[in-house]
Amino acid sequence: MSNLAKILSAIILLGTLMGAGPGLSLASPAPDASQPATVFGIPVLYAWVAFWFLVQAAAIFVASEKLWKPQDGGATDKLEKEV
Amino acid sequence: MNPLLTIAQTTAPITPADMGYLPHIMLGLYMLLLVWLCYLGYKKGEATEVDYYLAGRNQGTLVTSLTIMATMFSSAALLGIPGTVYRDGLAFVPFALNLTVGGIGIYLLGSRIHRLGKARGYVTPADLIGDYYQGTAIRLLATFTGAMYVLPYVIMQIKAGGYLAEQLFPDVQPITLMGEQFDMFRIGVWALSLLTTGYVLIGGMRSVAWTDVIQGFLLLTGMLLAGLATVLYFQNHGGFFNAVRQLPPEAQSLPGATGKWTPLMMLSICLFAALGAIIQPGQWMRFYAASSVKTLRQSALTFAIVLPFCFIFGIMLVALGARHEFPPVYKYTEEQTKEMAGWTPEEAAKQKPVLHPHEKFGPSPADTDKAVIVMTQHTVPQVFGKTAGTFVVTLILIAILAASMSTADSNLHALSAILTRDVYDRYIHRSATEKEKTWFGRIIIILATMSSVLFVELGEKGGEFNPLTLITQLMLLAVAFSSQLLPLAIDCLYLHKGTRAGAMAGLAAGILTVLLFGPFPALILDENHPVLAALLKFTTSASAQIHISAIGIIVNTTVFALVSCVTPKLSPYHLLKFKEVLYGGYKNP
């Protein structure tokens, strides 16, 4: 696995853990909070999920351009044609 | 000021009378388009099993991307999931991130499934599993797992057809046919079932995929348009996020109004259920049908970015807006009220009321699923004016119909493939001709549709036989079954460590776990028996913490690994055939 693959895997895993996992506890206001928690006027939980989505989307875009090869793993078109 | 918003000052919500015949015309045009595509698919098709089920393994990027998205986007995407956001608030928004995981799964799993399928002539998921593990029983078990996914999903889509018909044509009087009374819900259920069944029967995968292209465009447009209308509507009412900030604290925090959506629950859904949905039989067959790995790579990227975007910046905004405009209320259900009739006030105070949607949605807690429909009818005319608004509302309602049909057709088609290929072809009529096989597949489609309609009708008649009222519940249960193929798929495609006995034991354990932790035990177990009551309490409590697909996968993987350690390995020469296709030029070390 190349260094880029390791970095992108870590970013996507981090994005999932933060945006849709234990990281949500950092962003979620207390259920009995009297004032809504916001970032630039946006409810913090919504902004948190949108942010981690954008991070993941960027990582997936880079992965698709740099890592996802049409012949992943070395299988060749020739082999496919022969079969 | 946005010129569209000047209209909003005076425009009231659209009533059925305002809509006139536009819905009839647009729905008619949409159906004609489907019939035309079905005809084209039929004309181009050949009377072979591979062509009927995989469209000649030659689908390009546009068709593959949109058919994968449309199959994934069911009525749950436009009814169930927004309904859950409406009920629980922001706590359910992270659900959208399961789609980025799903997109990665399309490339990592799908490209290898495609390569093996092309090289070894597979049509169904069980073809690959059965061939790899060299067993009849494992093949049948994989077939059963696929079928357990497909049926709840078809039921869910058909039910959505009934909801939509009620909303599109609310003033149509019930009709009596052969002594049976059909209200608009039943007419919608039957119409969606018959039309979908018709084009799957005639055109096979080619028609299904081509109609998915139209349906995919419609539903992506519908999701974004509905979101845009909501934001524009609130611009004239103090701003969208200002409205969301006014929601009660329970709707702005985890675990949501019903207390279900803890971080662990969301993570288990986003990791396991997402991949389970990607390897459902209908999607798995689309990996075989793609023309190349490049096609799947492009489809995976589109899926991972476009779908979550449509959720987070589209349809979920509609649901959050609906919660502000039509706040849900806590009240006792009819059953609770009956039960509490003879209770003292102290006893009654201990009974918790249930969150019901606003009265505009309907009387049942399950009517939260109508959030997008009600909200769209409320906001769109105020943003676009009545004439254009009627057009846009109808377009959004047709998009919901398209979402239901595109998933129902894919699943009916997949069920037909797995029962024909994995059961009929192998165990009932081995010497069947290609024509006989496709006809058997068509009979399966008819039987599956009829059973699903029956289930929906029984569920709607109410009483005690209505365990799965909410669309999201049905969706997550179905995904829990299909996700049990995940450990086997990863082993076949990447690890190559498992044994046949291990795979069988793991898959059986996973399915049993899903059955045990799902809603079924509550229906059949005697709650008065102390042991059964304790078991029920344990399974209910565990499945409230972590999604049942994850519980099933954990049990499945553990049993798979342990049994594989002590049972005979697969032959290295057998594995070599797979490694050669997957890795090209692989040499046995």
Describe the structure.
The complex is a heterodimer of chains A (83) and B (589). Chain A is mostly helical and 83 residues long. Helices cover 61% and strands 5% of the residues of chain A. In chain A, strands 1-2 form a two-stranded antiparallel sheet. In chain A, helix 1 packs antiparallel against helix 3. The longest helix of chain A has 23 residues. The radius of gyration of chain A is 19 Å and the shape is elongated. The two termini of chain A are 28 Å apart. The C terminus of chain A is likely disordered. With 589 residues, chain B is an all-alpha fold. A two-stranded antiparallel sheet of chain B has the order 1-2. In chain B, strands 3-4 form a two-stranded antiparallel sheet. In chain B, a hairpin with a 2-residue loop joins strand 1 and strand 2. Chain B is globular, with a radius of gyration of 24 Å. Chain B starts with a helix and ends in a 6-residue tail after the last helix. Classes of the chains: A mainly alpha (83), B mainly alpha (589). The interface between A and B is large, with 47 and 59 residues.
SSE ordering of chain B:
HHHHHHHHHEEHHHHHEHHEHHHHHHHHHH
**Class from helix and strand fractions of chain B:** mainly alpha
Tally of separate helices of chain A: 4
The Cα radius of gyration of chain B reads 24 Å
How would you sum up the major sheet of chain B? Answer: 2 strands, antiparallel
Q: Based on Cα principal axes, name the global outline of chain A.
A: elongated
Distance between the termini of chain A: 28 Å
Instruction: Characterize the overall form of chain B.
Output: globular
Secondary structure class of chain A reads mainly alpha
* Widest beta sheet: strand line-up of chain B: 1-2
Helical content band of chain B? over 70%
Major sheet details of chain A: 2 strands, antiparallel
Number of strands of chain A: 2
Using only CA atoms, what is the Rg of chain A? 19 Å
| Span of the ends, CA to CA of chain B | 71 Å
Strand content of chain A: under 5%
Largest interface: A-B, 47 and 59 residues
Helix and strand succession of chain A?
HHEEHH
